[in-house]
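Retro notes - structure team

What went well: the batch runner handled both jobs without manual restarts.
What didn't: labels got mixed up in the shared folder, which is why I'm recording both outputs here explicitly, each with its sequence directly above its tokens.

Job 1
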Amino acid sequence: MSQIGNILKMYLILQGKPKCKISELAQELEVDGRTIRRYRDALEQAGIFIDSKSGKNGGYSLYSDNYLLGLNITDSEFNSLQLVEKQLNDSFHIASKDISMLINKIKTVLEKRNISSSGFDNHMEKVAISNIDRKIERKAMMDMHVASLTRNKLQITYVSLGSGESQRVVHPYATFQYKNDMYFMGYCEKRNKILDFKICRIKEYLALDEKFQKSEDFDLRKSMENCFGIYKDKETNVKLKIKYPLAGIVKEKIWVENQKIQEVEGGIIFKARVKGKTELKSWILGMGSNVEVLGSKELRQEIEEEISKMKSLYCAYICPVNVIE
């Protein structure tokens, strides 16, 4: 092995052991003690300082403020990283490759500390996978993120589900992920307000030289506060009576921070003040006859109208049609 390779290997050994004698290092690297001391000097010139103690229990050890390759990662922390890696790989997340590369680098250090890799082959995450080219989305997401950092305006060709295709100039404020899809939030000059843009719906984009001033009032977390999903319409008071067993599933999650759950016979009463009526209605309808909307009156009426539309849609197949001969 080359001198540089030996020096790096010596660093890895010291990173994994609290203390190591010169003779042990020399045996491991197949060199003499004088060479080990030269390696120590080379590491210290690079800013990696090594403590040296003589005596029976002496040896070389790294000072605790050396952070080049190690962060004192515990077994449980590393196992959690592996779990995240598995989940990202299962969902074909655009960051999965980067996380895998990071974990491989960490493994190099941890193997010296005898921290074994606890495989998660018996774990998977079942999610709907986006039907898009992940490489293209990844590049677009990174470009949007860079534009948000450099405060460069973006010119985009965007396909809205409601209004169709249009060109817009936007000020990208932040990127985020929701249900395995990538978005950016920013000010739209066309609509004169802050909107969410799904990155896979951007057909073309160009970073402009023109800069923008980010609104001082913008806060990504606050903008998502009390949102049921990512829709940000007016807030509404929700009161639902949910039957078991679905009540048990609802209780297991925090849907919004201000939710309140009360046990009643045969189910629960779910109360909250939320934004995002579109996704809220989808959630309610998905529970079928296991849920009753007690409030608000407006929400109950909208659910009734939706059920009526569904009933008329299927009634053509269920109800007999009178045929006049």
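Job 2
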Amino acid sequence: MTSNLSSVAKDTLKDCAKYAIFDQTGAVLAANYQPAELQALARLLDDRDSAIRNGMTVDGRRHEVHRFHPPLAYGRTMGGAPEASVGAALCKVERGLTGQPCFGVITYNMPNLSARMVPILQQLCEQHLKAN
């Protein structure tokens, strides 16, 4: 893990339940949990129909994808009480710090909503994950 990126992610994503910053090979650059689904997440933005149909799995939990606007995809868990649902978002940068596509994925609990959390993730990826 990159220590500077880890520090920036920890500070910037403090309202996230979980986060992982990784490259296309699945190499973790920063995370606050042990991510296991990175290869599938790296392919999520390849096909809109598949993303909407299959959702995205983060830390073993499925999130329905409501919005698919590459380089972003995001949604929430479904079922149960809406106020207990968990949001998830994925952001991709085409040329990241490792010279290949890199990604940021987050989950967030209520009262945090995508309207607030997705721009935070996108800004982190644009400012700190994208290669210069």
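One thing worth noting from job 2: The first helix runs from residue 3 to 12.
We'll revisit the folder naming next retro.
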